[in-house]
Specification:
Layout: H1 9-30, E1 44-56, E2 62-74, E3 79-83, E4 86-89, E5 97-100, E6 103-106, E7 113-123, E8 132-142, E9 147-150, E10 154-158, E11 161-165, E12 167-171, E13 176-180, E14 184-186
Antiparallel strand pairs: 1-2, 2-3, 2-4, 3-6, 4-5, 5-7, 6-7, 7-8, 8-9, 8-10, 9-12, 10-11, 11-14, 12-13
Length: 191
């Protein structure tokens, strides 16, 4: 005959599971996280899928439009990362500029956008203005100031001309273009 002791293992197993879970959560809470100097972790505080922002000039005409598959904002350094950004800049009397890249960055001042990886910038031809394209790995755009610049190699195509340079500074408002760093290429004058 067996003894009258019957042990129910289910409550003991649940108690052991809760104890293990508590131990794991305590270790997770004590583990240091990557933090910046201000004490904030570099984790996104929000994300926007199918990001789309547009600005207008004083007359209400579209000035520029920035879209991306995704925008991720980081609170610790107030930066926003863009996935597959596309930018369209419209200036009165000129063909619009279209820019695309794999990634984009917008810093806290929000006055410029950095395009990174497989950057493509294009402007169509207009009367008295040849078509223009730029390729490279980095391009900074300051829309309100009309500035495009890069400290990385770029290839420019202006009409039939092809020019390679180590860097670029273009000021649309002052009609100024500077190429730096081993500029070479074939320039064909337009009539």
């Amino acid at each position: 005959m067996t003894s009258g002791h019957h042990v129910n293992w289910l409550p003991l197993a649940l108690a052991a599971l809760v104890a293990l879970l508590s131990l794991w959560l305590n270790q997770l809470a004590e583990r240091p996280q990557a933090q910046d100097n201000a004490g904030f972790a570099h984790d996104p505080d929000y994300r926007v899928e199918h990001f789309n922002a547009q600005t207008f000039d004083i007359a209400g005409r579209p000035r520029y439009r920035l879209t991306a598959e995704r925008m991720i904002h980081y609170m610790d350094d107030d930066t926003s990362e863009l996935v597959q950004p596309q930018f369209h800049l419209t200036t009165a009397g000129q063909a619009p500029i279209a820019i695309s890249a794999r990634r984009g960055l917008i810093f806290g001042d929000r006055d410029s956008v950095h395009f990174l990886g497989n950057v493509q910038a294009n402007r169509g031809a207009m009367p008295g203005q040849a078509a223009f394209s730029l390729t490279g790995e980095h391009l900074r755009v300051v829309p309100d100031a009309g500035i495009l610049n890069s400290d990385k190699p770029v290839t420019l195509r202006l009409g039939k001309s092809v020019i390679h340079a180590g860097g670029l500074y273009a000021d649309e408002h002052n009609k100024r273009l500077e190429l730096t760093g081993g500029v070479r290429g074939l320039y064909e004058k337009t009539r």
